[in-house]
């Protein structure tokens, strides 16, 4: 019933049902079942965007699965916990957890889970600025996903490959990858991921000088994200729209307001990477609209924090944007 509630968007109801199950499982000493309930509650919090609460539940699930010597459950808890730490900016500990999960999933022989952990490690290397290793991990994950018929997962991984191409300045390649991913995701009915692909596509089009197309795609991505329950999709689509609308001069004042809202919301929810990404884009838009001092103040904060967290991909962009003295 809790799973059905999540599918229906009733996260509060799902949390209540999983909590009821958890009480029963703990009373009868069913550790694996209790762990599964903790994991499910964590997923509900994760979807709500409550990362601290999700982390607490995932850690509890990990402890219970470990006590039960449940390798499959332990691997799932490690993966989920690793993703939460990544979102909060703790990429070193996230890396350790995904590596542990990958070892377990390799022992278990689960190619789908192995591919997902490989993909997550690719995201970590990307965030830390090691684009060569990130590319290798993304390609490896995508190849496995395609081999086992996981078209949706392969398309999602392709979005990250498009982001990587964009970061390396290969705008045409980024555009092609994002378009192909978006097409597959539309067919698969994955509206959230399709919106995410469009956010990357909009930035690729902007980088390639196709301003009108970028504006249209960014607007479509943000409109789709408005109905999404996935905070990451909302942040990515809204940040992409703010960048496109602000740099092209389409709606600079609204773009600045929207980006400031993303920064505030991401900060309050402890989505550290999304916060710093939006703050960097905000500075870029401010610079494009002549507000240099405010932009510099934002960039100085981004540089300080990304140095602390080891988020070198965002750090490098912030340093590039910083005006000379």
Shape: globular
Radius of gyration: 20 Å
Mean pLDDT across all amino acids: 91
Unreliable stretches, pLDDT < 50, 5 or more residues? 1-6
Number of strands: 0
Class from helix and strand fractions: mainly alpha
Main beta-sheet strand count, sense and barrel state: none
Put simply, the count of helices is 17
User: Kindly, what is the distance between the CA atoms of the first and last residues, rounded to a whole number of angstroms?
Assistant: 60 Å
The quaternary structure here is single chain
Following the backbone from N to C, one meets helices and strands in this order, namely: HHHHHHHHHHHHHHHHH
Report the helical percentage. Answer: over 70%
Share of β-strand residues: under 5%
What does this structure look like?
85% of the residues lie in helices and 0% in strands. With 325 residues, the chain is mainly α. It is globular. The chain starts with a helix and ends with a helix.
Describe the structure concisely for a colleague.
The chain has helices at residues 2-7, 11-28, 31-48, 51-67, 71-87, 91-108, 111-127, 131-147, 151-167, 171-188, 191-207, 211-225, 231-247, 252-269, 272-288, 292-309, 312-321. It has 325 residues and is mostly helical.
Summary tags:
325 residues; mainly alpha; 17 helices; 0% strand; globular
What does the secondary structure layout of this molecule look like, with pairings?
Blueprint: H1 2-7, H2 11-28, H3 31-48, H4 51-67, H5 71-87, H6 91-108, H7 111-127, H8 131-147, H9 151-167, H10 171-188, H11 191-207, H12 211-225, H13 231-247, H14 252-269, H15 272-288, H16 292-309, H17 312-321
